[in-house]
Amino acid sequence: MDVQHRSAVLLEWKNLTVSVRPSAASSKTEWTGRPGHQQRKETIILRNACGAVRSDNLVAIMGPSGAGKTTLLAAISMRITGATTVHGKVLINGLYVTRTQMKQLTGFVPQYEIALQSLTVAEHLSFAAKLKNVGYVAALRIANELGLQGCLGTRIAHLSGGERKKVNLAGELLTEPQMLFCDEPTTGLDSYNAASVMKTLQSLVENGRRAVVCTIHDPPSQVFQRFSDVILMQDGGTVLYQGPTSDRVAFFHSIGKVLPVTGNPADYYFQLVSPGGSVSPASEAEEAIHRFETIRKACRENIARKCLTTRYHQAMVIQKLTSDRHRVCRARQLAILLHRTALHSIRNVREYLTVTAIFMFTSVVIASLYYEVRPLTQTSIQDIRGALFLMISELVYTTSYGVFYTFPAEMPLIRREIGEKTYSLSVYYAHKVLYSVPRAFFESFLFIGVIYASVGFTTDFLTYCCMSLVTGTASVLAMAYGYLLSCTTGSTNLAIEISNIVFLAFMLLGGLYLNVNAFPLFKYLSCFFFASEGVSVYYWLSVGSIPCDSETRTGGNETVTCLPNGIAVLEDAGYATSYEALELNYLVMAVQIVLIHLLAYVLLRRFVRKAGFY
């Protein structure tokens, strides 16, 4: 037995039926069941599909919009997600496989390119190879095979549509799958790029190396001619014809349909299966379809017998499943993702510098408003309180708002790479958190440094470091709340709206507008309180004496209290009066940061699973 036949892979699907339950808000909801126990009736979008694909097949799944092309592709690749129910069997070389095992054995190329646009082709493939435990030499070989050697140093954002499709394709070929699924590989491409992509796909199935199954909509004739097999679907989720493109003439002739000699065959197929088009007006046509499908079934069984007569074929699949050499440990995943994100940030440094400049302009405004304010009089106490609170409020707000865009902006990438088991979602979340922590402390030291140098704080450098440290820690807590709100809503706009209410409550508990002694427990929920009390303690404890006004302290029914030193100022605000008391604050913040991130991760995982992976 030669190598080609020994490595042949057969994918079979039997009686696949996919149904989806309409949402409660749908106006077309139908109910089933006895009164009191009714449930929404599921809508069938794929009916009793059977078929087989083997190595050396380049298969086109064609049909009008809504016929179930993508549903069939997702079902046979076991990538179907959402509120769907799947009945039927999918086998590889006669073996039942789980969804995870199917992802180990096959590759899936989504319709739209999903990658960090700032990376070059070489960098993208390098990171993908590392995450899939593949050598970079193999990645370069695949790039050369797909004709990407001339654009390895080009950023993905600057590639043509066809080149981007090939980059996506190269990422999937790293694990050497013997079955490849492509969703609309020519969508959005001109005829030249579409033909180039199809030529590449055709080369992948040569000599029985693998099978490629594609959904495609209205292909031009030069694209259609490259397919060896076609699955033609009609409205209602049923399959009209499946088999070699060379047999299509005989099939349609058997049901009384003569294909035009000239023109694009795909155009005729779409007219035939479009809603309202009649395929079999006579009973003879139904008999012809049944007769032809019986022949096709015998042909598929013959293929199965040839591929599955020995145990070697199943052993090959089992060996690939048990080796699982394309996964790296979580620590390695974390290091790779941190490196990739750092490189992406460096490529977008101009944007970061612009945002930071605007952020620092706010600190300059605050510094100019409170320039050379010193605790020399009783009236200056209020000025310094305002300067400190405005400083930490602006810092906490800006830091928390900065993370609202993280997950919504990267959700397509997350869904794609998590869906293909490229890395763990927990590792992805952890790398985002770890990458943001140094940024929070850096911006805290920078922001406070500008204000500290301009306002007349009569304290030393150590006090500045302590104030920056406590505000940095509070900023990390604010980031955790930002991640939580972002993961809870899944929408940037909704997260911002909810955060306005939440952070307003937190600000009131910060100590400037309300005396925190009235809220002995609730104050520990506020990141504003931790930052405000921290900077106040570090600043006011070093202030030994504040002169009292020589004028009378009473006027009418109002008594003006003199605050002779920094401790008195802290007591008046309800803050702690010792450095040791801040140790509890640091502990509470650390616990809250961990718990909030755990909750945010759980909500993110739930959201990703509900939204699906493709």
Write a concise synopsis of the structure shown:
By secondary structure, this protein is an alpha/beta fold. Helices cover 54% and strands 12% of the residues.
Task: Give the structural class.
Answer: alpha/beta
Tell me the domain tally: 2
The proportion of residues in beta strands is 5-15%
Q: CATH topology of the largest domain, what is it called?
A: Rossmann fold
Sum up the overall morphology in one term: elongated
Indicate the CATH class of the largest domain. Alpha Beta
Largest beta-sheet characterization: 6 strands, mixed
Strand order of the largest sheet: 8-9-10-5-11-12
Q: For the record, what is the CATH homologous superfamily label of the largest domain?
A: P-loop containing nucleotide triphosphate hydrolases
Radius of gyration: 33 Å
Distance between the termini: 39 Å
Pfam family, one: ABC_tran
Family: Belongs to the ABC transporter superfamily. ABCG family. Eye pigment precursor importer (TC 3.A.1.204) subfamily.
Domain ABC transporter: 11-261
Keywords: ATP-binding, Membrane, Nucleotide-binding, Transmembrane, Transmembrane helix, Transport
What do you see in this structure?
With 614 residues, the chain is α/β, with parallel strands linked by helices. It folds into two domains: 10-19 and 43-276 and 288-319, P-loop containing nucleotide triphosphate hydrolases (Rossmann fold, 3-Layer(aba) Sandwich); 357-369 and 384-420 and 441-548 and 561-611, no CATH class. Helix content is 54%, strand content 12%. The strands form four sheets. The chain has a six-stranded mixed β-sheet, sandwiched between helices. Strands 4-1-6-7 form a four-stranded antiparallel β-sheet, with helices on both faces. α6 (161-173) packs parallel to α7 and α20 packs antiparallel against α22. It is elongated and about 105 Å long. The two termini are 39 Å apart. Keywords: ATP-binding, Membrane, Nucleotide-binding, Transmembrane, Transmembrane helix, Transport. It is found in: Membrane. One of its GO terms (molecular function) is ATP hydrolysis activity. The chain crosses the membrane at residues 352-373, 385-407, 433-454, 461-482, 494-514, 521-541, 584-604.
